[in-house]
Write a structure and sequence with these properties.
Layout lengths: L1 E5 L4 H12 L3 E6 L17 E4 L5 H8 L4 E4 L13 H22 L3 E7 L7 E4 L2 E3 L6 H5 L14 E5 L10 H20 L2 E7 L1 E3 L12 H10 L5 E2 L6 E6 H17 L5 E6 L4 E3 H12 L5 E2 L12 E2 L2 H7 L7 H8 L10
Parallel strand pairs: 1-2, 1-4, 2-3, 4-5, 5-9, 8-16, 9-13, 10-12, 11-15
Antiparallel strand pairs: 6-7, 6-8, 12-14
């Protein structure tokens, strides 16, 4: 099988490439090697065909798609961003870039797509309160300033966080989140128009060796590791009790392989979303503590600071992915954090 991985030189994309090569597939990578993501050009496996270029360039995309059977679209600008001035770059990279890839696939009659989405499309996670399952409104600045970080029920009591499913309402709350949902909608429109099949993988907090460092666009685990690498204490926002689902990058790669297989047999013209999480709930403070402990770094500092674009708790039910695609995560939280605490990161972004 001939697979194109866009963003295949990146953190997650490169793991998918390794997993595809292990299956004996022919792999082509399309990557722009952006300097705000790659501190230095990463080494490329000699077994892959590498196309250097951007997904927003139609000619480059057409060249990369030639002779391909299935596309795994990982290329995107990720993270919450610095401020709203990042919005044009997010929209261009994520939404316009996806539109170019999909138009190229339609022209080349490539019928199968796996696309990287994110937990951020949900906004806040699922909660239960006096009236049952609920989705709270964005947290109020006054509450955050007062150190009240948990969303509240109508009577002022904290809501209880629950696992979120793919059928939960979608409520993207920042520019990055909006672009990820737009990518899903574009892929769905492409599937309906062409008869193609789509698996949209909603990644939860991905971590592992090879994460980028010293960049505001990386995930929280990478930010903690970058601090430790610099000899500084990891800085934990709010009270550190934010609940997340941390899933190892090798498990994310295996989920992509399962999704690629799925697209071969899925009903033509359909797009289906899948949460990709470990199913094991931990707090952000716990991650910082374990990384510091296992690397013998400075203990984390809990600051009480907050970012308005952040959500409080979001944890995944990955039952659909397990039941329909037969996927099972292989790396436990403790094992993964122990490895990641001293694993090499990507070259620092200047």
């Amino acid at each position: 099988m001939r697979l194109l991985v866009t963003g295949g030189a990146g953190f997650i994309g490169s793991e998918i490439v390794k997993a595809g090569l292990a299956r004996g597939w022919s792999i082509r990578v399309l990557d722009s090697l952006r300097t705000d993501v790659h501190g230095a050009s990463p080494d490329q496996d000699s077994r892959i065909q590498f196309v250097h270029g951007d997904v927003t360039d139609a000619q480059t995309v057409a060249r990369a798609l030639a002779g391909i059977d299935v596309v795994c679209h990982q290329a995107a600008k990720v993270g919450l961003g610095v401020d709203f001035s990042d919005a044009p770059d997010y929209v261009a990279s994520n939404d316009f870039g996806t539109a170019v890839v999909l138009a190229g696939m339609a022209a080349a009659q490539i019928p199968r797509l796996v696309i990287a989405s994110s937990m951020v499309v949900y906004g806040e996670g699922a909660y239960s309160g006096r009236g049952g399952i609920t989705r709270p409104a964005p947290r109020r600045v006054a509450d955050l300033n007062a150190g009240q970080f948990d969303p509240l029920d109508d009577d002022g009591t904290p809501l209880t966080p629950e696992l979120i499913t793919e059928d939960s309402p979608l409520d993207p709350r920042n520019v990055y989140a909006i672009t990820k949902l737009s990518q899903e909608y574009l892929a769905t429109a492409w599937a309906r128009s062409t008869g193609g099949t789509v698996a949209a993988l909603r990644y939860h907090n991905v971590y592992g060796p090879g994460m980028p460092q010293n960049t505001p666009y990386a995930g929280v685990a990478s930010l903690f590791r970058s601090s430790i690498e610099r000899g500084q204490a990891p800085t934990v926002f709010e009270d550190g009790k934010q609940r997340r689902d941390f899933v190892h990058v090798r498990d994310v790669a295996s989920a992509n392989i399962a999704a690629i297989d799925y697209t071969a047999d899925a009903t033509a013209g359909t797009a289906r979303a899948f949460n990709v999480g470990s199913g094991d709930v931990h707090t952000i403070g716990e991650v910082a503590r374990l990384l510091s402990l296992n690397s013998r770094g400075l203990a984390p500092v809990v600051t009480g600071e907050y970012r308005l674009g952040d959500v409080r708790h979001i944890t995944a039910s990955s039952a659909r992915l397990k039941e329909e695609l037969g996927w099972v995560p292989a790396v436990s939280f403790e094992e993964g954090m122990r490895e990641f605490a001293t694993a090499p990161l990507r070259a620092a972004v200047s």
